[in-house]
């Protein structure tokens, strides 16, 4: 098994709650977010980065609606590809500059990858993945009146919902593998990658949906035969007894225990649940370990000093 780490970064790491999601702010956060990645590069890890795009693709949908009378709206899958390109550009440039300052001769490349899904996936009939920012009651009502799915998320906020099928594989995974083996830091599967399926007559065809980036990161990690999957977020660990007066951080978690917590519904569906499920998928599929940690704690979490490490058996 190679010394490869797949890192999953949330889209909220760039477009943070409580401040305008301007490009200036997002570039600033991109520069802040890559410090742990530089440390991993210095330690000699092969690295693939998967980033989220929930806030950004929601903004793109809003731009679609505002410009509808002037230009043709773009389908959601195309918007996912577009955000994979420009968010990848921000991370790529920020990482290139940081690696150069650190004296590390590592190249960086962004690859817009396609994610295979099943066109008969039942999830395509039930929009359930929040995208974009929280909505006011008035905006939520207007979107519902326009036939757009809107539901409350785990925090009780109104959000636009998108269809989200389960990933089956990443089309360009062999290309990503060749690049990381050559020492290139690769940004891939941005926003989960535009979802596609194989049509018998036409070949690859897109689907108007989004795919969960953590599940895609786990899939990519398996396809790259990675040693570790790191899901880097704004929470320092997985907690037991979450929502009670005395939550407990879980530093180490066996696969069976993680799956039992998921089965019991102890992990919020709108936040930590999908991350633990992705981590469990990776370990169940043969990965050595998955780490869930705060972004700034990445290298320390990789050493087991913080975060939550999920393994097959303790």
SSE topology:
Layout: E1 4-9, H1 23-33, H2 35-42, E2 46-51, H3 54-66, H4 76-101, E3 108-111, E4 115-116, E5 129-135, H5 137-145, E6 150-152, E7 158-162, E8 169-170, H6 173-181, E9 185-188, E10 195-199, E11 203-206, H7 213-223, E12 228-233, E13 238-240, E14 248-250, E15 252-254, H8 255-263, H9 272-284, E16 289-294, H10 298-302, E17 308-311
Parallel strand pairs: 1-2, 1-12, 2-9, 3-9, 4-10, 12-16, 15-17
Antiparallel strand pairs: 4-8, 5-7, 6-7, 10-11, 13-14, 16-17
Helix pairs in contact: 1-4, 3-4, 7-9, 8-9
Summarize the structure.
The protein contains 10 helices and 17 strands. The model has no long low-confidence stretch (mean pLDDT 92).
Q: What do these coordinates show?
A:
The protein has helices at about 25-35, 35-40, 55-65, 75-100, 135-145, 175-180, 215-225, 255-265, 270-285, 300; strands spanning about 5-10, 45-50, 110, 115, 130-135, 150, 160, 170, 185-190, 195-200, 205, 230-235, 240, 250, 250-255, 290-295, 310. Helix 8 crosses helix 9 (about 270-285). The mean pLDDT is about 90. It folds into 3 domains: about 10-35 and about 45-120 and about 170-225, Acetylglutamate kinase-like (Carbamate kinase, 3-Layer(aba) Sandwich), CATH 3.40.1160; about 125-160, no CATH class; about 225-314, Acetylglutamate kinase-like (Carbamate kinase). The chain is an alpha/beta fold and about 325 residues long. The strands form 4 sheets. It has an 8-stranded mixed sheet, sandwiched between helices. It has a 4-stranded mixed sheet with strand order 8-4-10-11. It is globular, with a radius of gyration of 19 Å.
């Amino acid at each position: 098994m190679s010394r490869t780490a797949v890192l999953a970064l949330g889209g909220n790491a760039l477009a943070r709650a409580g401040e305008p999601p301007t490009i200036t702010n997002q570039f600033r956060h991109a520069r802040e977010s890559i410090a742990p990645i530089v440390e991993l590069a210095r330690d000699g890890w092969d690295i693939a980065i998967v980033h989220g795009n929930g806030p950004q693709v929601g903004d793109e949908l809003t731009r679609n609606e505002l410009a509808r009378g002037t230009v043709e709206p773009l389908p959601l899958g195309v918007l996912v590809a577009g955000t994979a390109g420009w968010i990848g550009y921000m991370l790529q440039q920020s990482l290139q500059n940081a690696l150069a300052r650190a004296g590390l001769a590592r190249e960086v490349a962004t690859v817009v990858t396609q994610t295979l899904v099943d066109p008969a996936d039942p999830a395509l009939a039930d929009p359930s993945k929040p995208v974009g920012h929280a909505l006011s009651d008035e905006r939520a009502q207007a979107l519902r009146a326009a036939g757009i799915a809107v539901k409350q998320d785990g925090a009780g906020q109104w959000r636009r919902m998108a269809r989200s099928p389960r990933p089956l594989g990443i089309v360009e995974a062999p290309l990503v593998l060749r690049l990381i083996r050559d020492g290139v830091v690769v940004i891939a599967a941005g926003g989960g990658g535009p979802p596609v399926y194989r049509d018998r007559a036409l070949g690859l065809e897109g689907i108007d949906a989004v795919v969960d980036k953590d599940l895609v990161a786990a899939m990519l990690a398996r396809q790259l035969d990675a040693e570790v999957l790191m899901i880097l977020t704004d929470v320092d660990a997985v907690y037991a007894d979450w929502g009670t007066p005395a939550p407990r951080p879980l530093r180490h978690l066996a696969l069976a225990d993680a799956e039992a917590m998921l089965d019991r519904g102890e992990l919020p569906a709108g936040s930590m649940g999908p991350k633990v499920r992705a981590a469990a998928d990776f370990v169940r599929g043969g990965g050595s370990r998955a780490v869930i940690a705060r972004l700034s704690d990445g290298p320390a979490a990789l050493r087991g000093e913080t975060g939550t490490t999920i393994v097959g058996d303790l």
